[in-house]
Design brief:
Distance between the termini: 63 Å
InterPro entries: Acyl_CoA_acyltransferase (IPR016181), Bact_Acetyltransf (IPR050832), GNAT_dom (IPR000182)
Number of strands: 5
Strand order of the largest sheet: 1-2-3-4-5
Strand content: 15-25%
CATH topology: Aminopeptidase
CATH superfamily: Gcn5-related N-acetyltransferase (GNAT)
GO molecular function: acyltransferase activity, transferring groups other than amino-acyl groups
Keywords: Acyltransferase, Transferase
CATH architecture: 3-Layer(aba) Sandwich
Mean pLDDT: 95
Shape: globular
Largest sheet: 5 strands, mixed
Low-confidence stretches: none
Number of domains: 1
Order of helices and strands: EHHEEEHEH
CATH class: Alpha Beta
Protein name: GNAT family N-acetyltransferase
Pfam families: Acetyltransf_1
């Protein structure tokens, strides 16, 4: 399969939303059109240092996505490029789509002077991990999530 990689554009809204909904379903996140819309708006407007890529087929129809985010790396005084979301439509899997998206992310990181492209995945995501083990190095770091404290109320 011939795969093209390009930045998302306004005309990709419906296809991207469908792919992102598929990503959310894969990770058992609730169906939430508002989250999908807000994330799309962030990507389209470049908010939060987000960059959106789509993988396309021969007809320029999006068949995969990568949502990327630039981040500071204080420990090395460099920046990195984080792959927040990577998804390939089920019918396009095992055809080089995710690898092409990661390759383009690596190119963008190089062009932007980044020192690393980083991402996390679910431990049980065996198909993706086979690819990741071929193209990158797993780190020894363990991820934690801490719930934010409630906002302090200010006296009136």
């Amino acid at each position: 399969m011939s795969v093209g990689i390009r930045f998302v554009g306004p005309d990709d809204a419906l296809a991207w939303a469908s792919l992102y909904a598929g990503y959310r379903t894969f990770y058992q996140l609730p169906d939430d059109p508002e989250v999908v819309k807000r994330t799309w708006d962030w990507l389209l407007n470049g908010e939060h240092s987000l960059v959106g890529l789509v993988a396309t087929n021969h007809a320029d129809v999006p068949i995969g996505l990568a949502n990327l985010r630039w981040f500071a790396r204080p420990s090395t005084a460099t920046r990195g490029l984080y792959v927040d979301d990577l998804f390939t439509s089920p019918e396009a899997r095992h055809q080089g789509v995710a690898q092409a998206l990661l390759h383009r992310a690596a190119e963008l990181a190089g062009e932007g002077g980044a020192s690393v492209v980083r991402w996390i995945t679910a431990e049980g995501n065996a198909d993706a991990r086979r690819l990741y083990d071929r193209v990158a190095v797993a780190t020894p770091w363990v991820t934690y999530d801490l719930k934010p404290a409630p906002a302090a109320s200010t006296p009136s």
